[in-house]
Each structure stands twice: as C-alpha cells, then as structure tokens.
What we know:
alpha/beta, 7-stranded mixed beta sheet, binds pyridoxal-5'-phosphate
Amino acid sequence: MKVYADQAATTKISSRSLQAMTSCCEKYFGNPSSLHEAGREAEAALETARGEIASCLNARPGEIYFTSGGSEADNWAITQAAAVGAKKGKKHLISTAFEHHAVLHTLDALKKQGFEVTLLPVHEDGLVRLPELEAAIREDTALVTVMYVNNEVGTIQPIAGIGEICRRKGVLFHTDAVQAAGHLPIDVEADKIDMLSLAGHKFHGPRGVGALYVRKGIPLGNLIYGGGQERGKRAGTENLPGIVGMAEALKESLQDREEKNARILCMREKLADAILQIPKTRLNGSREKRLAGNLNFCFDGIEGESLLLYLDLQGICASSGSACTSGSLDPSHVLLALGLPAEVAHGSLRLSLDETNTMEEADYIIQVLPDVVKRLRAMSPIWNGVG
Ligand SMILES: *Cc1c(COP(=O)(O)O)cnc(C)c1O
C-alpha cells in the first residue's frame, strides 16, 4: 500500500485545479496587460481569480497581491511593515520562536539592519499566550507576525485575540496562514488581520504561486520594479494559469469544509490513540488546538531520519520536522521552541493527512509503525527503555 501522509509539505494538485489551469493556458493565452481582446480576456480571468481569493478571506480584490508562493509573501509583508515602522522611528518587531524560516530568516536580515526582534515563547502546547504578547508590545513596535497554524506541530494560534490586541495598540499584524488557508475558515475582517500570506500548493493547487493580503490603507512598497502589474508593486507578466489554478483549489478546499474536517479528525484520533500506545512516545503540541490532519510524535531512543527511511520502504511518505529542514541533521527549531531536549527532538515524526487520505491508509500506518519503532529501538545504542 502507498500512503502519502506528508500533506503539510505539499499536496497533489486536484483535478479541478489542474483542469482550470490547462483550460486557462488554452483560452487565456493573452498578456493581461495587452489592450486587445486576448489581453482583455486574460485580464478578466486574472481579476476573477483575485476576486475569488479575496472572497475566501473576506477581503476586497484590491487587497490581494499575487506572489510566487508563501515565502515571497512572508518576505514582502515583513520587510514592508518594517519599512513603514522605520519611517515613524519604530524599529521593534515581535514574532514567535517557531515560525517558518521564511519569517525567521527575514527577521534575522532585519536585525542586521538595526531592527530589534522579540520572539515570544510558544510553551509546551505550542501556543502563544495573549498576555505575554500584550506585554511585549512597546511604543516602538512596528509589527507583530505570528503564524496561523504551525507547519510542524499543527497548533492553531489565537489569531482573533492577537488581532484584537494589535488593533487596540495600533500595531500592524501579519500572519503566515500558509498552513491554514484551505483548511480553516479565514476572515481577515473579523480577526483584524492586516497582512496575510498563503500558498497554492498547500491546498491542492499548483506550486510556485501564492498571495499576500494587505489591508487597504497600508502603504506597501515595491517588491519588483518593472511594469505595472499588481498595481505597480510587483512587476512581471503574471503566472495566470497558476493564479487561476490556485483560486479554483482554494474554493474547492473550502467546500464542505466541516464535513471534511470531521472525517480527517476521525482518522487522526484513531491514529493518535494507536500510536500513543507505543511506549515512551509523546504527542508534541496541544492535541485539541491543532489542525485536524496534523500529528507530531517523538519516540525515545530513535532517530527521525531512520524512521522515515523505514516507513518509506513500506510505502509510507511522512516527514521528520518540515520538508525545509530535513536534509539537515539539526533538531527542529519548532520542537526546541516547545521545550523538548535536543536528543528527544531528533526522534520526531510528522504525519499530515487531509481529505484525500482514507481510513484504510490510517489503518495501514497503525499496522506498520509500531513494528518499525520496535525494530529501530532494538538496534539503537541509545535505547535502554522498556518496550
Ligand atoms: C510551506 C510554508 C511556507 C513556504 O511556502 P512556499 O510556497 O513553499 O514558499 C511558509 N510558511 C509556512 C507555514 C509553510 O508551511
């Protein structure tokens, strides 16, 4: 049996999204900036997609900027918010210790330019505490950037609470919603979000395309100089098939969302109950306040990398930490932020499921995983526990 349980790394494009892309390539081949009919049709397709993405977020079309993905949207949002702050003499930024590297490395670059960064703790449950956030805000705070859903442990942050505090204190609020979009209902108005990043390939759309929402009235500086695309802020002929495919995938993902989430939750809970029977195993992050499809475990005495290889041999695609950090042997910065010791964080496994997975697949994982853990522990020089 083949099981793809790495939906947080990327997803397979849906047939609806692929269909929308291919028909876009055939029908709307004009350049949206051209004045002739082919151009006007392409422009109309572009603006339809913009409107669809906006309405999925309860935003206005003029507040959506298309990008090459989640990383670009994060980079753009944070550097621009920092620039807006710096003009008013505000050079303090607040984030969390377990953000995606697209956020953390942007903050590192800003630190070198003289910004001061406060990283909030996320505690053992993988959640930010609102009073700690409020206490960290200063007169010179330009931006709070906190991810909506963490990509490794799946925990869902108190976004509405953060939005409320930031609005009241007059601080810009950006959220990296790359893991949330398509999986949770997002409402930028209700949650008082000023800027938000998303990426098509995390909800069965194409990769290499994403979007940044920026609330009307926030001055957004240029990312790429050139033509007048994206209201002159990000030049270059638009990736129209990607944009159209992403809009289709987002609409499709949000259809019957509650039903899908309930089904995913059934699989996840069955998996969690079974896997936690394995001795010396822990679930990382809050079990309740996490995305329906996410599970992240640590198994004492084994290496996450070997676990992955053994699961792969049995047809199961999973990950240890995130796709972006695997390949390096450093323990996950996310698990360290949750307070796990480095040697424990090394033995981590992330299983991420969504509506395209089945209960039979969950059962197969339950059949294979305990054995693999047992075998690896039997070979492990550092395993001396029971089991
Ligand atoms: C995947 C991911 C990104 C990066 O998105 P790309 O489209 O790969 O650039 C950023 N943040 C989070 C939380 C992610 O999961």
